[in-house]
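SEVERITY: medium
COMPONENT: batch folding queue
REPORTER: lab tech (J.R.)

DESCRIPTION
The queue accepted two submissions in a row. Attaching both inputs and their returned structure tokens so the on-call engineer can compare them side by side.

ATTACHMENT 1
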Amino acid sequence: MKSIKIAAAGGVLALALTACSGGGAGSSSGEDGAAAEPSDLTIGVAMPTETSERWIADGDAVKSQLEEAGYTVDLQYAADDIPTQAQQIDQMITKGADLLIVASIDGTALANQLQAAADQGIPVIAYDRLINGTENVDFYVTFDNYNVGVQQATSLLVGLGVLNADGSEAGAAGPFNIELFAGSLDDNNAHFFFRGAMDTLQPYIDNGTLVVKSGQTEIEQVATLRWLQETAQKRMEDLLTSTYADGSKVDGVLSPYDGISRGIITALQNAGYGDTIEAGLPIVSGQDAEIASVKLIQDGVQFSTIFKDTRKLAEQAVVSAQAFLEGDEPEANNTEDYDNGVKVVPSYLLESDIVYADNIQSLLIDSGYWTEEEVAAGQAD
């Protein structure tokens, strides 16, 4: 990833670390009461996989911003393997990490590791994926994931002509055949995305504007294990065979992630729906503004994606980490919605944007997230 993507989005990294009152968990004060220097502190960063552009960008952004602030960073990717991630976190603790930032593969699988962290006074920040079933997660930085689902569903409705981009009614009455996809059930975010999407779509299903022809409307029926593109493509192929062999057509597909979207699109293209929306390809949503999908949106193949600026998320993780290491509590803007089954985790939520073909320039290129050349090529430099 280019340096522009991993640079701080603001001036947060110029914040000076100052001595703070109190010791104990999360305090960086030395034995003499003076604040420890950032260079004396190590932050373990556990990311799920390097198979997704998004997580590579997140890892690079978090590591870069922490190092710019002076910290030593131990960044590990776990290849979407739960035991590997657990082992990596164990090693971070053993090697003396002062704080952990964890984007979990399975939000329920790290209770032992987090207990070990708590026993040693190591604060834990859950990064974009809530860690469930433990009291030992201290803070959560993420996007407003329910609203991401609302945005995904809204973009689907815009593509079908039911809504205008500003959310007003556009007049198309349908009925439109749609199918639903969700993320991995072991990812807490997948449930927020799906709930937001279904709350938005349900009124149009109820009034007959939208028809889920397969009848598969429960998250357990439509989930995609590990968010895998190949799994989504296979399910879309099966839906076309089982539900649309009568000559009926799919008009739109709710997809929660760009990799899943590309799998869905491949299945539809292989089934003869055409190469572009103009040629008959259904409306397909997405998420993460991956460069391959941004290119597809520009070319009229995928309709939309959700842009979650990972630079801002990384920045907020750094701000939160600094607060803990100074002996303070990070600022939360949500203390009600993110219940992990044991406690409500104080959280900081960021906002996201819907990307359509006509705002790629303003949202992604002008902000420096992707360059015009990268979008044209469909790959990062």
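ATTACHMENT 2
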Amino acid sequence: MDKRGGACGGAIWFIGWLFTIGFADLSFWKGVIGIIIWPVFLGQSLR
């Protein structure tokens, strides 16, 4: 079985999380919470 898909998905998630912290200018604790729900913070910032 090819397991590269999981590693690629994790990398994309990590990049999205870092981008959201910078783009939405989140505080440290919101950044920590954003590990799980970064798409929500990104959506609120773009709204």
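NOTES FROM REPORTER
Residues 4-46 form one domain.
No errors were logged for either attachment.
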